[in-house]
Amino acid sequence: MKFISLFLLSVSALWSEVKSFDFKDAKGVNTVIFQLDALLESINGSAGGISGTVSFDPENPESTKGSILLEASSLRVDNPVLQEHMHGEDWLNVSKFPHIEFSLSNLRKISTDGRTVKAVADGKMSIRQVTLKMNIPVEITYLEGMLEKRNRIPGDLLVVRSKFTVKRDDFGIRPGEYLDKVANEIDISINLAGACPLE
Amino acid sequence: MKYFLILLPFLMTFSYWASEGRRLSLWANQVENREEVPIIEGMPELGTQTKVTWQKKFVPGMETPSLGFFISTILFLSHYFSKRSLKKSSL
């Protein structure tokens, strides 16, 4: 009996297909949007330098893993002085720490609604070489065979959406300083499309 | 007329700042445009993505009416003190 169940498990593992999705968007739409609402000033901006891969199995979404990288120098705000300060040594120090990374280890609390999977993503966020465990609510939509309609290449699409907050003092970015102008809490919104072309 | 000329820098900078959207922080030299685009063209039912584009454009911030106010204050004070010194010398 044990042998049969092991056999069935291994067969099901063979049938389920793990697909690797590349988040370097050929269309250049993938963007991270951020907002800081301090008492005296509100800072809004976005960043487009996104890359990374996520492996996703539609039959087994809890095993989803991978990493999303954001080029720190791609963070933009509308004021040139503010942007220079944000990239500078005292804040993000983009020349020394060129990437912000979220590495996803698994999904849990999964609920499925048609093509969409809602879950909590367990992973680690690294900013300025400070790595912290984070649990982020995500909504993943698997669009089988739809890459051709988006990028004119046969394959699948994976759309990852999330809204979450990080605190800059957790990552050692001038903790406790300038809180009236630069809020501690950074609201982040992501809406990314990853491509898995057919080989 | 004198007082109108004194107030002119402030009125001009204030109206320029107001006409450009009354930005409450410092000036901007690029403007972010956000647009919801379908993930797959022609199929918005599959969801949308926010497409962000940046446009080079100068937008005055709070520093512009503040500068106008500062100039008007300087003009007012110089006018006021010059009037006083004229009165003193005539006495």
- Largest sheet of chain B, described in full? 2 strands, antiparallel
CATH superfamily of chain A: Lipid/polyisoprenoid-binding, YceI-like
Number of helices in the DSSP assignment of chain B: 2
Q: Indicate the radius of gyration of chain A in whole angstroms.
A: 19 Å
How many helices of chain A does DSSP assign? 3
Q: Give the spatial strand order of the biggest sheet of chain A.
A: 1-4-5-7-8-9-10-11-2-3-6
> Which value, in Å, is the CA radius of gyration of chain B?
24 Å
* Oligomer class: heterodimer
Summarize the structure.
The complex is a heterodimer of chains A (199) and B (91). By secondary structure, chain A is mainly β. Chain A has helices at residues 2-15, 80-87, 147-151; strands spanning 19-22, 31-37, 42-47, 50-56, 65-71, 75-77, 99-113, 116-127, 130-143, 155-167, 185-197.
Explain the overall architecture.
The complex is a heterodimer of chains A (199) and B (91). Chain A has a single domain (17-197), classed as Lipid/polyisoprenoid-binding, YceI-like (Lipocalin, Beta Barrel), CATH 2.40.128.110. In chain A, 14% of the residues lie in helices and 51% in strands. Chain A has three helices and eleven strands. Chain A has helices at 2-15, 80-87, 147-151, and strands spanning 19-22, 31-37, 42-47, 50-56, 65-71, 75-77, 99-113, 116-127, 130-143, 155-167, 185-197. In chain A, strands 1-4-5-7-8-9-10-11-2-3-6 form an eleven-stranded antiparallel sheet, covered by helices on one side. Residues 6-15 of chain A have low confidence and may be disordered. Chain B has 91 residues and is α+β, with helices and mostly antiparallel strands. Chain B is rod-shaped. The relative contact order of chain B is 0.22. The mean pLDDT of chain B is 90. Chain A binds chain B through residues 29-31, 33, 41-42, 44-46, 48, 76, 78-82, 141, 143, 146, 149-150, 157, 159, 161, 189, 191-193, and chain B through 25-32, 34, 37, 39-43, 46-52, 54, 59, 61.
